[in-house]
Amino acid sequence: MDRKIDDLARQTVTLATEKKIMIGFAESLTGGMISSEIVSVPGASACLEGSVVSYSNEVKMSILGVQEDVIRNFGAVSELCAKQMASGARKALDCDMAVSVTGIAGPAGGTDLKPVGTVYIGFSSEEKCYAEHFVFEGSREDIRTATVENALSILLQNMK
Questions:
Q1: Reduced to 3 states, what is the DSSP secondary structure of residue 112?
Q2: Measured between alpha carbons, how far is 50 from 100 in angstroms, rounded to an integer?
């Protein structure tokens, strides 16, 4: 990946381990890239509970508990879906904090309302659950890399 992401992953593992925070992920467009970055850090087992690669809507609903109405009415790439994915990952993985990512990495799949690069990053802890909206530019890999970087940044901000 890149140096900034390597650094964010190291900081995440260090801080989560120090604070005894167990973390987890629900990844759609990144397909496991976030958890892979965490696992590349020695000692990750002290803080990583797991990750659900929820690429299909069926997995989002059956494993993460995303409501079918949410996907039907707002889409899998939506604030509500990202929030439910994060909350569902926290429950399914029995962790303290979970981050979810859902979006359109392209090159196809975008619409006028949701262009390629549209990403929602969700966060869930016992205290709060929210999602942030982003529109990243570049190639499929650029969009996925920007998503990983921002997901780790959001997790770090919430741990501090």
A1: coil
A2: 12
